[in-house]
């Protein structure tokens, strides 16, 4: 079974600073995908970034980048130049290739960006 | 806007009742997923459909059922509702199966059972 661990319940960061959100995962599969989603207070789930287990380079999407360390089974999200609108819950998720394509989510962590 | 639509946005009902949640996937997406988000359980996968056929089941109660129609929209039916069914129900869609396929989420239906 797959598992995602997000141990930081909450983080505070100053506007314009960079912040790293931790995610570790557990799976015995060799082929899998890792995803980060953002959930603002309005409730919707917004896709941020994807990293495949065989991708050689770390994924980047605008201000978001993923620090993927396969041997350590970690997939930390880095947000550069934080903005007030980044305040939200952030969820890390894993999806394996074989069997169900379901996403398995971590418990999430709350990021607050202060002005 | 993800392109996935869900109706209704909010639903308040009583225990024992039955409700239907509706989802329209993004144009071109064949896979539909249903997830439940509650405070105690977090985000849990319920069920997946691909091109009209059930593809995978997760932690879905027997009181819950779903289907995907020929036009690819999906409905999640919740019956004999209990207080504990109060949650945010998400529909997500992707082009097809496969670990690389990103699932795009709808805005969710917030269900409150009184």
List the topology elements.
The complex is a heterodimer of chains A (115) and B (114).
Chain A: E1 3-5, E2 10-14, E3 19-21, E4 24-26, E5 32-39, E6 46-52, E7 60-61, E8 64-69, E9 74-79, E10 88-96, E11 104-105, E12 109-114
Parallel strand pairs in A: 2-12
Antiparallel strand pairs in A: 1-4, 3-9, 5-6, 5-10, 7-8, 8-9, 10-11, 10-12
Chain B: E1 5-7, E2 10-13, E3 19-24, E4 31-38, E5 42-50, E6 53-57, E7 64-68, E8 74-78, E9 87-94, E10 104-105, E11 109-113
Parallel strand pairs in B: 2-11
Antiparallel strand pairs in B: 1-3, 3-8, 4-5, 4-9, 5-6, 7-8, 9-10, 9-11
**Series of H and E elements of chain B:** EEEEEEEEEEE
Rounded mean pLDDT of chain B is 94
Extended strand count of chain A: 12
> What is the overall shape of chain A?
globular
Instruction: Please tell me what the overall shape of chain B is.
Output: globular
* Largest interface: pair, residues per side: A-B, 27 and 28 residues
Summarize the structure in words.
The complex is a heterodimer of chains A (115) and B (114). By secondary structure, chain A is mostly beta strands. Chain A is built from no helices and 12 strands. The radius of gyration of chain A is 14 Å and the shape is globular. Chain A binds chain B through residues 31-33, 35, 37, 43-47, 50, 52, 91, 93, 95-97, 99-108, and chain B through 2, 31, 33, 35, 42-43, 45, 48, 55-56, 58, 88, 90, 92, 94, 97-108, 110.
Brief summary:
The complex is a heterodimer of chains A (115) and B (114). Chain A has 115 residues and is an all-beta fold.
Relevant terms:
heterodimer; A: 115 residues; mainly beta; six-stranded mixed beta sheet; four-stranded antiparallel beta sheet; 12 strands; 0% helix; B: 114 residues; seven-stranded mixed beta sheet
């Amino acid at each position: 079974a797959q598992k995602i661990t997000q141990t930081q319940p909450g983080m505070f960061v100053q506007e314009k600073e960079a912040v790293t959100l931790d995610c570790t995962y557990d799976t015995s599969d060799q082929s899998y995908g890792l995803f980060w989603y953002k959930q603002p207070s309005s409730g919707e789930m917004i896709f941020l970034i994807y990293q495949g287990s065989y991708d050689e380079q770390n994924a980047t999407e605008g201000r978001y980048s993923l620090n993927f360390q396969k041997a350590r089974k970690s997939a930390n999200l880095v947000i550069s130049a934080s903005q007030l609108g980044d305040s939200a819950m952030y969820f890390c998720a894993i999806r394996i290739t074989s069997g169900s394509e379901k996403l398995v989510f971590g418990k999430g962590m709350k990021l607050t960006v202060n002005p | 806007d993800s392109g996935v639509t869900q109706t209704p946005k909010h639903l308040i009902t009583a225990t024992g009742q039955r409700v239907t949640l509706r989802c329209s996937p993004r144009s071109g997406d064949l896979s539909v997923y249903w997830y439940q988000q509650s405070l105690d359980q977090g985000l849990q996968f319920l069920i997946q459909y691909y091109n009209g056929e059930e593809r995978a089941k997760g932690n879905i109660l027997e009181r819950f059922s779903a289907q995907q129609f020929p036009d690819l929209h999906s409905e999640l039916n919740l019956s004999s509702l209990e207080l504990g069914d109060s949650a945010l129900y998400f529909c997500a869609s992707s082009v097809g199966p496969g670990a690389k396929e990103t699932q795009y989420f709808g805005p969710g239906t917030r269900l409150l059972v009184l």
